Amino acid sequence: MTPEPTAPVAGGLSQPPALRHSPLHGCHQALDAKLVPFGGWLMPLAYPSGTLAEHHACREGAVVFDVSHLGTVTLHGPGSFDRLQTALSNDLRRVSPGHAQYTHLLEEADASVADDIIVWWVDKEHFHVMPNASNTTRVRTAVGGEDTTGERAVVAVQGPKARERLASFAPGAAAVGRFQVAEFSWQGRRCTAAGTGYTGEDGVECAVPSDLAPAFWQAVVDA
Q1: What is the pLDDT of residues 16-70, one digit of tens each?
Q2: Would the CA dihedral through 109, 115, 121, 127 be positive or negative?
């Protein structure tokens, strides 16, 4: 992987680029999270309750993760399907609009895996491509589209009671099926949910506008 460029400073020295912050950074600070660098972002590693408590909550109840460090490359309009079908390893024809698909971006030279990706197929010519934290630029170069990472937060509600919790304040998000994608409205704003459940438990990932994210996070915590 090519290292990220460094920024010049006085005296000819250089320093790493500033870490990006999630729209939920203030929420994590208020909860006394341990924050660490990850893929160019400053993200929560653990909370005072400890990782064992978090694990059991995920297996027995419901938990919420901030995964806003994941990239979002948005494609829409004619040709979007063809660009993704050419660049990614899985066959989008196996699914349809309103579904998510796990796939890979491959290196042109030797077909090794450059990144593993989730594609949210929102509508006929509307896709969200979700790469890992540090690979957004690489994926955008390969598939085109627009980097919309900074416009939203991604809040993942996971666990056997995740949908029950979501249904109390965002029924549109709670209703999305396994590996399905749907838009829903919350506080009059358009959001998107996908039911990939990446922890192994059932779960829903909600992409909400950045400025709305702290209120959505608090609604999850309150539930």
Answers
A1: 679 999 999 999 999 999 999 998 999 999 999 999 999 999 999 999 999 999 9
A2: negative
How are beta strands 41-46 and 20-21 bridged, if at all?
Answer: parallel
**Would you call 4 helix, strand, or coil by DSSP?**
coil
The Cα 113–Cα 117 span in angstroms is 10
Contacts of 33 (CB under 8 A, 6+ apart): 44, 45, 46, 47
Tell me the C-alpha distance between 214 and 153, whole Å. Answer: 9
Q: Residue 39 and residue 8: Cα distance in Å, rounded?
A: 21
Burial 150-165 (b: 16+ CB within 10 A, else e): eebbbbbbbbebbbeb
Pairing state of beta strands 34-38 and 181-186? unpaired
Residue 185 tokens, joined:
């409205």
CA 181/CA 186 separation, integer angstroms: 16
Given 3-state DSSP classes, what are the helix, strand and coil percentages for the chain, each rounded to the nearest 5?
A: 30, 35, 35
State pTM to two decimals.
0.89
How is residue 144 annotated by DSSP?
-
Q: Please count the other Cβ atoms lying within 10 Å of the Cβ belonging to residue 124.
A: 13
Counting DSSP H helices and E strands in the chain, the numbers are 7, 15
